[in-house]
Amino acid sequence: MATYVGIDIAKHGFDMATEPKQKIQHFDNDPDGIQRCCKVLQQRKPDLIVMEPTGGYEVALVVELQATGLPVAVVNARRIREFARASGQLAKTDKLDAQIIARFAAVLQPPAQEALDQQTRTLKALVARRHQLVQMHTAETNRTEHARDKAVAQSIQAILKTIERQIKKVEQQIRDQIDCTREFKQKTQQLESVPGIGETTASLLVTELPELGRRNRRQIAALVGVAPINRDSGTYRGKRITGGGRRHLRARLFMPVLTATRFNPNIADFYQRLLRNGKTKMTAIIAAMRKLLTMLNTMIAKNESWNPKSA
User: Fold this and answer.
1) Taking a C-beta distance cutoff of 8 angstroms, is the pair 58, 51 a contact?
2) What is the pLDDT of residues 91-142, one digit of tens each?
3) CA-wise closest residue to 294 among 229, 186, 221
């Protein structure tokens, strides 16, 4: 009989439930607790382990479980919460959450994620850190508009200079990490050859969309959340929508796609044609994002650089 495991993670501990039901177990979220959990799961040999992202508290457990060869899927918390409501489970405790996650795993069986090596995890962390620093820089810059007191303005400028130094330092660390890994270097060079894709976007795609070049175009679009979803019922034909997928990645691709609609001839022509046909700007941008991702996916799959004639 197939076995599915759901784990609800918090800062100091996590609860583990199994489907078919067994006794719920609690572990401390520290190296000893994680090792004990791994030993238990190695003995049970579950078909799938599912957990929610919890701001990074799940990372150490995911890494250790994947290192032992166990299949792990980190699933959007909203999907699990909606599954719980659909199942009539309105109450919420750590143990109940672990049980509903295990049931979600058994019913929907989301695909297990690929294990990331240390280089990929480091690069992913650096890319995320750069994004945090840029957000901090934007917030401080916005405060300068209302800084009428000289001392406050000087404080803001000092913070801005510190953040700018840190951004440059992290960007150099990202370059070094990419240069020392042949696969990363090759992929980023191919991606940067595309008009509208710069160094930052290339490193983002390498870390946040490692499936690029390994999945078909529909799967890639669905992973990012730019695949159109039907809303039809009976004779009703609803408006197609997009959503789901990796929302943080979709949001960070917005500006690069806007750049591509100006400087990438293939994307620009496609975007302008949609506008002429009456599509809204947002609809056209999402469609352009889907087209750009399809082009990038084909390039990486064929191990090619940008060629406007084949795009």
Assistant:
1) yes
2) 788 899 999 999 999 999 988 888 878 888 888 889 989 999 999 999 999 9
3) 221
Please check whether residue 281 is in contact with residue 289, taking contact to mean a CB–CB distance below 8 angstroms.
no
Q: Which two tokens stand for residue 83?
A: 């599954």
Residue 11 corresponds to which amino acid? K
Coil vs helix vs strand at 203 = helix
d(CA 238, CA 241): 9
Tokens of 111: 């695909």
Q: Which residues pair with 74 in a beta bridge?
A: 51
In eight-state DSSP terms, residue 144 is G
d(Cα 273, Cα 295) in Å, to the nearest integer?
18
Distances (CA, A) of 225 to 169, 201, 217: 32, 17, 12
Residues near 287 by Cβ (< 8 Å), separated by ≥ 6?
270, 271, 274, 279
Instruction: Work out the average pLDDT over 62-90.
Output: 90
Q: Among candidates 117, 119, 88, which has minimal Cα distance to 103?
A: 88
